[in-house]
Specification:
Length: about 240
């Protein structure tokens, strides 16, 4: 598949429950140089972004960019340069992914905002007049978002979890009031908080309000912006 991948260490956990997550990674925020894929990005989430986690953060000889980053930038540039062609190719990739997963006796599910926060309900596929959720009504989609007020209630196959970050604290109770769970990143998930790290399948979570994610990536682990909620005092070297 041109746009989708299935090798994310977190998403593969879902296979134990019979699901195969296909995830799309675009260049986050303004990294692509052609547009902003994360309209509600905060300083903390920009610094801690998982875009540079895992293989995405491995640079040969200390170089400034690698093949994974180039691919994410290329896809993002395609999205902004020719939206119609991009959506058509993405729909083709989704159908191919569905066929692949079904041959493996797995249920395909899709997370389009792996490292972005775009409102996919707004984008139609070619001349169909339909967005992806309407084009594939029997397929489950899910995402994290920092954007409140997205008009997605009518799409029963699209599940959103709100992402709490530094600077958007006032949006947390609003998101809960709208019926969303709120993902909070902790250095250590408290015992009284639902652990959302067992799988990435957010659409299976009970509606509990706050769900916890363990901080990941060396950049995020050093966060001091408030993006990460610290239950263990951080050591400050003077």
């Amino acid at each position: 598949m041109h746009y989708l991948t299935k090798g994310n260490p977190k998403t593969v956990k879902g296979q134990k429950k019979g699901f195969q997550t296909w995830i799309m990674h675009l260049a986050p925020h303004t990294v692509s140089g052609v547009g902003n894929t994360c309209p509600k990005a905060t300083p903390g989430c920009i610094a801690a972004c998982l875009n540079l986690a895992g293989r995405g953060g491995m640079f040969k000889d200390g170089g400034p960019i690698n093949s994974i980053q180039k691919a994410r930038i290329r896809k993002t540039q395609e999205f902004f340069a020719d939206r119609s062609a991009f959506m058509f190719k993405l729909a083709e990739d989704i159908q191919k992914a569905i066929n692949y997963s079904e041959k493996k006796n797995l249920t395909p599910v899709f997370r389009l905002n792996g490292t972005s926060d775009l409102s996919w309900e707004k984008y139609e596929v070619g001349e169909t007049g339909l967005n992806l959720f309407e084009l594939f009504p029997d397929v489950q989609f899910y995402d994290y978002t920092k954007v409140l007020g997205r008009k997605t209630e009518q799409y029963k196959n699209y599940h959103l979890t709100f992402s709490r970050a530094d600077g958007n604290h006032k949006d947390v109770p609003k998101a809960i009031k709208q019926g969303m769970n709120v993902a909070v990143v902790y250095d250590k998930i408290p015992d009284n908080v639902y652990n959302a790290d067992e799988t990435d399948l957010r659409f299976l979570d009970p509606t509990v309000g706050i769900i916890g994610l363990k901080v990941k990536g060396h950049r995020a682990k050093k966060d001091t912006t408030g993006f990460v909620i610290r239950t263990i005092p951080i050591k400050v070297v003077v």
